[in-house]
Write a structure and sequence with these properties.
With 257 residues, the chain is α/β, with parallel strands linked by helices. It has ten helices and seven strands. The N terminus and C terminus are likely disordered.
């Protein structure tokens, strides 16, 4: 789905939803797509979804109601929670260059912090391209790979079986715990993982994958694994809500200074 220019897909926002926006402190003059998009944290890259005003309003009301994001001026800027075991975050990207720029510093931080790192990337992104971007943050990337501290895989090798279908939660979880145990045995603090799910958007596997994410969300608290899941930003409003709510504390609101 290609993003639609702002304003082109705006429809009248239902009165009930307008009332909910007003209750959040959003004046009627801002009930248009560009203004509503400005309330979303930058990590969501919401403008790339191409949602119109009605869908943006519904998603905004839902996420604010769940306290995943804040509209109040009493809360400071949104930031990523400090990475620690049990952490499960999602981020959205417009293109592969943005994906690399987003994940490379996350992986680099783990390498510097003596953590085992697993990076599962889209099939279209080469390991060479990922290494090149990662090398702008840490030296001797190949040494990290050779030592076993960093493993880089393509998403079909991680998520899909030989028939090209999504593996069971049990199979993927077993593989993740195996990497966790390997990292701990090598003396690393925990396993920091990044897994790309951009391939699943718009496919028949999408709903099954969200079920998988919900199970991961429930299970990670008992592990020594921290994970970020990356998704393409061109998703529907329903997908967007499902993805965000399938992750723990998708965004951390820092106190105002």
């Amino acid at each position: 789905m290609m993003p639609t220019p702002a304003g082109r897909n705006d429809r009248a926002i239902p009165q009930k939803v307008r009332a909910q926006l007003l209750a959040l402190g959003i004046p009627a003059t801002r009930h248009v797509s560009d203004a509503l998009a400005s309330f979303f944290p930058a990590e969501f890259h919401i403008t790339a979804t191409g949602m119109g005003a009605e869908d943006l309003a519904r998603v905004l009301v839902y996420l604010a109601g769940k306290k995943i994001i804040s509209i109040s001026g009493s809360v400071g800027p949104t930031s990523v929670r400090k990475v620690e075991p049990g952490w499960h975050f999602c981020q959205f990207y417009r293109d592969f260059n943005q994906l690399l720029d987003m994940v490379a510093p996350y992986i680099a931080e783990g390498l510097k912090n003596n953590e085992g790192c697993l990076w599962v990337m889209p099939q279209a992104v080469t390991k060479e391209a990922a290494r090149d971007v990662l090398a702008t943050y840490v030296d001797d990337v190949d040494d990290y790979i050779a030592s076993g501290q960093l493993e880089m895989l393509s998403h079909p090798n991680w998520y899909l079986n030989q028939s090209g279908r999504l593996k069971s939660f049990e199979d993927i979880a077993a593989a993740l715990l195996s990497r966790q145990d390997r990292a701990l045995a090598k003396g690393f603090k925990f396993l920091r993982a990044a897994g790309d799910a951009g391939w699943v958007s718009g496919t028949e596997e999408s709903r099954n994958f969200i079920d998988y994410e919900l199970k991961v969300n429930a299970a990670l608290g008992a592990t020594k694994v921290a994970a970020v899941c990356t998704y393409r930003a061109d998703v529907t409003a329903d997908e967007f809500v499902a993805i965000v709510t399938a992750h723990q504390d998708a965004l951390c609101r820092t106190p105002a200074v």
